[in-house]
Prior knowledge:
mainly beta, Methanol Dehydrogenase, Chain A, Cytochrome Bc1 Complex, Chain D, domain 2
Amino acid sequence: xRSSRWxxxxxxxxxxxxxxxxxxxxxxxxxxxxxxSTRYVDLNSINTGNVSHLKEVCRVRAxxxxxxxxxxxxxxxxxxxxxxxxxxxxxxSDCTVVWKSVYAPEQKExxxxxxxxxxxxxxxxRGTTDCRLxxxxxxxxxxxxxxxxxxxxxxxWFAAAPIVWNDLxxxxxxxxxxxxxxxxxxxxxxxxxQVWQFHTVAQRGEFGGDTWKGDTAxxxxxxxxxxYTLDHNTGELFxxxxxxxxxxxxxxxxxxxxxxxxxVVLDARTxxxxxxxxxxxxxxxxxxxGAAPMLFELADGRPAVALGSKDGHLYIVDRRSHRLxxxxxxxxxxxxxxxxxxxxxxxxxxxxxxxxWNGPAYDLQHGAIVVGxxxxxxxxxxxxxxxxxxxxFFMGGTFQFIYDPPPSGWITSVDRSxxxxxxxxxxxxxxxxxxTATAGGLIFVGDMIGNLYALDSDDGTVRFKNNLGGAxxxxxxTYQVGERQYVAATSGNVSRFIWGETGLPYVVIFRLSGDxxxxxxxxxxxxxxxxxxxxxTAVGDAGRGAAVFAKVCAGCxxxxxxxxxxxALVGIGKRRSVEEIGAWVMNPMSAAxxxxxxxxxxxxxxxxxxxxxxxxxxxxxxF
Length: 623
């Protein structure tokens, strides 16, 4: 790729290998900054010499308890962020809430996670947890259109942040762990009309259909759950495709299982397959390619693509020859080629390890690729007879996280030319946040115990560290408004898959302390602290508990209590009373692991109120 640009007048050309933005206000107009997903910003007002003076300007509460993994988009003079069901527009300098639009799901929510919006032509586009695609007015939040191209009852939903190009909106379905049939879509940006679709799990009669045994492609997974990359010169759309289903049962679906665990490159205008690169054929350990690819140029000018994978490696692939140039481990790697059996195998990374939904950034100053990763192993077993149940997790086995040693994270800088690690930084907790490189010689990134870091891009030295009070699982970006440079990050995430703090969801904005007026910071209208809800009934409200369970608990225990990383809850009413279940939620250390780690996050009282606990207990007792 030679260059990539954003079409609005307020932002200039962004080059894939040397992206430079020059304007009075320097924005962050899409999930990964530009179509090439480089996440490099030509700003240096905040630099290695003064970043230690970075101070919090403001923070705003984005919503209720649950997963908070949204990328941040700063465009149109506003800062946009999403939760599972809400979309917010904020003043990017003081956190004032300009508007908030809340979508009420119309069907089942398979997994309440959303990874962010896209901005284009005065509109905000986002997916929903019940398989809708929405277009909102970017100035007011008013809904302009809504379409339903997939089926949440089968476990499909939209997790990814879409991208928009040439009046087309690109997004694909998530739900590979539920045995869905993966698909990538393009929609007309003005009306929502579907323009094309591509099967990310090749079907019978299609190219690659013979890489699936029997009818296994019908439950073959292949979801997409982060975001996408595009070369506007060639019209190529780069799609990362996740794991096959069932996750841990490779025997029944023998073959390469195209196009799972693959980079798929499509004609953005038609959806036709142009080429692909499969990182791992016939995966049996849930080692997705989830993060968006990053486009850049090698020192000799050859176009290349960088891929951060859950298998714990950073891949560099030549975009002309489609050959692998380098493969660099960026976390602990163990037993990846040892088949999963009924007796089980220790796998590193596995399930929640490696490079998750936020991929690499390009450090222009050093010709390097910087990527964050999770260091966390698991013990994985195959079921003797995996059974598919529509709309439930279809793992084909079980997994147990290993807490000795405790989960941690890595940030690694890799030389683009030879794939060698320039430096590594070992974070205190898993790293899943966005990574951003700047002309100020800094790498901004966060970890899952709430630490926001600024690392020196020369050698990985910590130049700034601040704990935000909640897990950083979404966007970490920087932008300029007027003459001031800002850094914004998400904080607060409830997710059993990623070890660390939880917290309520906040957007937190920083700038240099000399720019901040003295005195108490102003609070935005949505910044009121959470208050304890009073218990309104002695028995609990199962209907309200169902809503809380879907947002906070289903990611661990399954949407129907079938179990995932947390234990199955089916039949729990025969073993425990409402009061006993409530006591368990309030004091999870009573069920600690042998290493001393809590068997579940401590959610009460910082995230769940007493009423929440009782209502959830009343709901799950009926499983």
